[in-house]
């Protein structure tokens, strides 16, 4: 009954106990509520921190992906710069072919641009990058500047608008490229100032107007002082936050903790997924760079699809931009029209045979040879099969193959054009190749086939051979007489790979000549015997004739040697006389004092030069008589040396009041001749014409074709030559006037040298004149044959 006892305040003991229990319960519930509220608050704060970390992590990953793409573009621009520097390719063409690049130029050219211009600012940025050892950055005008210093040549830079390298962004989002106080970005301009105070590699959340928060992350660029920053507006409270708080308020701590744990796990999985995707993107970027460097790419195609997937490298080869699905018809438009039908047929057959391998020419400028190959693979889902493979740039390989085929065609044509037999055997002495003459000469038209053995051919050809013998000069050479009365010289030589070459030369004429020579020797031996039986006086006369001939030859040799030595001895002091007289005549070291000294020096110079010309003519004549004068014939324009000679002597003619006219036939073929010798011949003839033509006269030089020859003629209106003197001209030291009444200077070697030079070219010189009216000297030179004549003379000298 104790619980019924009433206390002084009117409450029973039970009521007090109940009140105390109620208070304890209230405090307990309040404590539980406080604990739950604290736990909910702490959990909500933890949730907010995790969400902020995930937001910044995702933003940082996006900025890293953007930075990787920009570094890839920078590497592409560097490749373009190396192409310009190393191969000399067109800068404008390389800049046009490089995505996102406006110009490729040298640093020196950019520095010469007007002050304050886009290129001048870019040049300052490039110079700063070279000092810092960086590759690219942003100029103060917002351009991306990439600089490279190749091993050869000066530094070069590439210029691109900053916005073209950044991805597009919408409202509430901005992508910015920051370098110092300069920034270039795309997206919401209101967010531009958020990136200027952030350091590269840093990420943060800041307050923004209208109950928003601004999330920003910056990633530094490799090889650049710049950084890529991503900024996005994020609401302070989202609907998810309010729902989550409501759920936390209604649910118990355990379910709340379970949900929070589940959300934490999902957040971790998202982070792992994002990291894996970033790694995959980086791997794709590296693979793309490798493919571009190898001029290759990959493709995929499902037989039931009307589109083909192309990688970046494959798109570049087809002349397209970017990777992705390309319509088959659009892809065919990038193939040369002549090869489009083959491509369609290849794709049609691929469904049946399960693989693709073809080569085609692209419809680009310049066109590229592309090889496309791949095979069918099963889809991992098992629903359908797809084709996958690679495309390769094989332009250089095709060009090499074409050059090899062209060389092979030329070789085959040359071998077939060879009038002697030719055969090629492999290391097992099996026939690989032969020409038509090999089959006809040995009567093997119905026997020859590739792979037939050497011994079989030796047996089969015996019917066409009358006799054969080994050459006394070479054990591997045979002289073969055919049934057709022809003689062949068969030579066999091993090849570097162990094979054998058989070559036959028609020596019928040589054999007949040897036989004729033997008969002549017999006749000469008989004649010698007859001479020995004749009177002794004939022998004595022959001996005296030989002695006199030897004396004459020795005298001629002595004369040539004397002329050569004396000419050299005279020319040495003449060089000094001419040199010093020219210094005096031109007063190079100051005036002489008396003008008569200058006139005397000029007379000395003129006389010395005249004497030097005479000595040079004597030297040339001595060389010709000694057989030491040579010419170097080359295909030349016949008018060129004639025009050079006219221009060289025109001043001399004008000083005497004589007009020189050059009349050349248009469209003349090239002449096989020595340019210097032709010029010297024309100079000699013009000098003679000027010498024997009075003031007011005319000299006409003609160049025209006469059949297979070129005729060069020099006609003057001078004094002419008596008809009785014509036969002795063109001989050394011969002139028309006698020695006692000579009115004209000279050695009489000009015409002799001209005649000798003409004969060395296989031509000749002709002379016609009418006394008192003028003279015409003509040189007739064969258009072709001078080189053959020189070769024959050298062969005779060697023999």
From TrEMBL:
PROSITE patterns: HIS_KIN (PS50109), PAC (PS50113). The keyword Transmembrane applies. Its EC number is 2.7.13.3. It is an enzyme of class 2 (transferase). Gene3D superfamilies: 1.10.287.130, 2.10.70.100, Histidine kinase-like ATPase, C-terminal domain, PAS domain. GO terms for cellular component: plasma membrane. Keywords: Kinase, Membrane, Phosphoprotein, Transferase, Transmembrane, Transmembrane helix. Residues 354-406 form the PAC domain. Residues 565-785 form the Histidine kinase domain. InterPro entries: HATPase_C_sf, HATPase_dom, His_kinase_dom, HisK_dim/P_dom, HisK_dim/P_sf, PAS, PAS-assoc_C, PAS-like_dom_sf. The chain crosses the membrane at residues 27-45, 242-263. The keyword Nucleotidyltransferase does not apply. One of its GO terms (molecular function) is phosphorelay sensor kinase activity. This is histidine kinase.
